[in-house]
Write the structure tokens for this entry.
Amino acid sequence: IRRAGAAEHIAGYSHRAETLEVARGLGFADSLSTNPVECVKDADLVVLATPVGAFGELAEKIAPHLKKGAILSDVGSVKGAVIRDVGPFVPDGVHFIPAHPIAGTEQSGPSAGFAELFDGRWCILTPVPATSDAAVEKLKAFWQALGSQVEVMDARRHDLVLAITSHVPHLIAYNIVGTADDLETVTEGEVIKFSAGGFRDFTRIAASDPTMWRDVFLNNKEAVLEILGRFSEDLFHLQRAIRWSDGDTLFDLFTRTRAIRRSIIDAGQDTPAPNFGRGEKKDK
Ligand SMILES: NC(=O)C1=CN([C@@H]2O[C@H](COP(=O)(O)OP(=O)(O)OC[C@H]3O[C@@H](n4cnc5c(N)ncnc54)[C@H](O)[C@@H]3O)[C@@H](O)[C@H]2O)C=CC1
Ligand SMILES: O=C(O)C(=O)Cc1ccc(O)cc1
């Protein structure tokens, strides 16, 4: 926001004073407070950025203090649940526009943020049908100023698309690393010692914040279970191909998936894990 000059004043809130200390050290905001009400009063734009499961409680606290004409938004990884939990608290005259920047890393806390995070990444807005077009355009311009490309989508569609592209892949990573950890007692260190590319990539994803991801799965149940059902069927199909030495089935799938990877690269959506030379960061 600061790089883009997109706000006259940036006010930051956290419920933990230690987090504000880190944010202060990084020069993130013009004012910082552990009081959410103080933080939102007079704001033109309020962006909720806690784990999804905390949005409702936070919205209830700040809602009566929002300025008329303000935009209330968020960055949650799930959208239907945000509309369900925050929507009922939004006062008349406040524009509620849920949003999801598809950008981030496995790191969390203020020190995981960096100015280039949103460059070239998509940000999905999921306004409900009655939302003012002008307010949607304003929020769109905000995210574009931050470097994002913006798409407007129905919340239900968002949750299904993200279940396949982000939520289930995270669950698979958590699961494979958990399975390997269970094996570890048998193999005494070999999993770590010989961990090759594939497993290492999964461990990065599986290092993501436990609270954030617990809340994603608890709040996108329907879509995640739908995708998991299909995933399990396809996995059984592969298991069967291996058992019966059906090389054609394996080869055909691997050829198809290689083409998908190439199309992602061609679309410019394969920026490397965005550390930009800062090296690995320790979690908060
Ligand atoms: N990490 C990522 O790559 C991405 C995360 N998101 C979404 O953004 C949101 C924030 O994620 P991050 O910035 O990664 O997390 P974070 O862990 O860096 O920040 C979340 C903050 O919320 C605070 N918090 C937790 N419970 C709270 C409560 N009950 N009341 C007030 N504050 C509370 C935590 O102390 C922490 O400071 C989540 O909803 C997540 O789904 C969206 C896109 C990418
Ligand atoms: O670290 C990664 O690879 C991510 O996938 C980051 C991420 C996490 C959650 C989101 O809702 C969007 C992006």
